[in-house]
Amino acid sequence: MTVAMGLLLAASLALSAVRRRIVPTFGRVGLGLASGALLYGLTQAGVLLFRAAWPGWESHARALSAWKEGYSAPFLWITLLMIVVAEEAFWRGVIARFASERLGTALGVVAGAALYTLAHAATMNPLLLGAAFGCGLYWGLLAAATDDLTAPIVSHLVWDVMVMFVTPLV
Q: Has residue 15 been placed in a domain?
């Protein structure tokens, strides 16, 4: 996974169109922090619904958390940062952007989120698939609204850190 994400990151950042869309400013980083916190709040609301309506959801959440077991903290943080930047550069910076240019913004964001979800299908984890689609839409809209990848990268990083390390879902 780490090697694949490293290759995806290198390939995505090799494109000048992607590099031009990562311009960190205080405003964009602040927007990313705020949108990551909002998405985390929405996730916590979803957890309340899952507890009431989907008895088996916790086993899927535990399976998602298991990936980090046995690795050192520095490895996890470096891997997480690389994965987040690679996913945003590729899925929002290349795929959703390409689809939006051909289908219009709304359909392009949906197509990008759907393909992002399909990339996670091998896990066969319905919780991850739902999260990938919902978050893919959220970060795709954020990228489209700002025409930049800084806020989606920061938002994605905040959400991942909160969900995986600060207050895991289970």
A: no
Q: How much is the pLDDT for 9?
A: 83
Name the residue with tokens 């759907």. 114
Q: Which residues make Cβ contacts (< 8 Å) with residue 107, sequence separation at least 6?
A: 99, 100
Closest-CA residue to 135 (of 32, 68, 36, 63): 36
Domain count, the chain: 1
Residue 6, pLDDT score = 81
pLDDT of residue 147: 95
Nearest to 76 by CA among 1, 151, 13, 132: 1
Terminal-to-terminal C-alpha distance of the chain: 23
Domain around 50: 25-166
Q: Mean of the per-residue pLDDT values for the chain?
A: 93
